[in-house]
Each structure stands twice: as structure tokens, then as C-alpha cells.
Amino acid sequence: MNLNAEMRRLRELDWRELDIKEAGVWPWSLQLLLCLLTLGVTFFAMHWYLAAPAKAQLEQVRAEEPQLIRAFRTKAALAARLEPLREQVEALEVRMDELREMLPSGAEIPALLDNITETALDNQLTIDYIRLRGTAAQEHYVVQPFDIQVRGDYHRIAAFLAGVAGLPRIVTLHDMTLSPEGDNGHNLRLALVARTYSYRKDAEGDS
């Protein structure tokens, strides 16, 4: 009976005469309806203001998840190889230092030429000339080429080349020409371009 009476009061209510100041005497069903409406509007506003951006951010994170997983796996694999790589780098640095020690400085070039001359004389070769060329600067080192021409028999020339290759300083041999010397065919003339290298310390600072 109360519910029917309340519904009848709502139907008979003149909505134009409602005054918010008299809300306390409105039918309880109308008050309940307004409370539910206010609650719904409040919930929708909170969802729109708080939950919607969070949901959009969540969707963005979900979209980025496969890429983040791949990046994590890549970094994890790199981290697993980090210690072996460090050991390899340290070994390479030690080897690099050893090779640098084998490169003559500019002041050591004359001594290197003396060593080559002594090697030729030790193998009883006749030295026609040992002439320096102009240097050629590269990114990390300077190339110092020089021309060599010696004469002697095949075995002594071979021993001379082996001796030059075994010098403490790095010397590479290029453009070798071997031709007969005289009519007997026993003596040969060897002409070649030898190159040694000097490390550029200024290049280390540039890098």
C-alpha cells in the first residue's frame, strides 16, 4: 500500500513546483531516484577522470609489451656475454700493447735500417741501396716505406728475407722482383719495397 501510494504521489507531482530548498519533504521515491542519479553521475565522472586515462595507458603498455620483452631478452643475452667480452677486450688490449711495442718510433727508423743492413751483410749479400721514401699518414699509424736492392745467390737471399721478417720491429715486404745477375745464373738481384709502421699517439687522443 505504501508503494502504491508513493507511485501515486509521483504521478500527481507537479514537477514545475519542485523547489530544491524543500527537498526534505519530497516523496522518498524521488529522493532515492535523485540519490541514485547523483551516484551514477559521480561514478561516471570518476571513471572518465581517473579510470579512462589509466585504461588508455594500460592499453598502450600492453601494445608495447612484446617490444619491451624482446628488448629485455636482448639486453639479458648481452649481459650474460658481458664478462666473456670484457675478458676478450682485455686480451686484445694486451695484444695491442705488444704489437705497439713492435712498431718503431720515428727515432728508431735509422736503427731499423742498420738492422736490415746487418742482416744483408750477415748473409753475404751485396747491397745496392736501401733508400727511405716519404711517409704516408693513416688514421692510427704512419707508414714508412723504403726501397731495398741486394744481390746474391738464391739461398742467401731467402735467408735475408727470413731474417728481415724475424726482426723485433714489424717490417712487411712488398713488390718483390727477382732477376738474374750476370751470365752464370747463380747470382740474383732482389728489388723490393719494405714498409714499417709507427703508431700515432695523437690518433689515440682524437678517438
UniProtKB/TrEMBL annotation:
Concerning PANTHER family, the annotation shows: FIMBRIAL ASSEMBLY PROTEIN PILO-LIKE PROTEIN-RELATED (PTHR39555), TYPE IV PILUS INNER MEMBRANE COMPONENT PILO (PTHR39555:SF1)
Phylogenetic lineage: Bacteria, Pseudomonadati, Pseudomonadota, Gammaproteobacteria, Oceanospirillales
Which keywords does this chain's UniProt record carry? Coiled coil, Membrane, Transmembrane, Transmembrane helix
Gene Ontology biological process:
type IV pilus assembly; type IV pilus-dependent motility
Q: Where are the transmembrane segments?
A: 28-50
Q: What is this protein called?
A: Type 4a pilus biogenesis protein PilO
Q: What is the superkingdom listed in this entry's lineage?
A: Bacteria
Coiled-coil spans in chain: 75-102
Q: Which species expresses this protein natively? A: Halomonas icarae
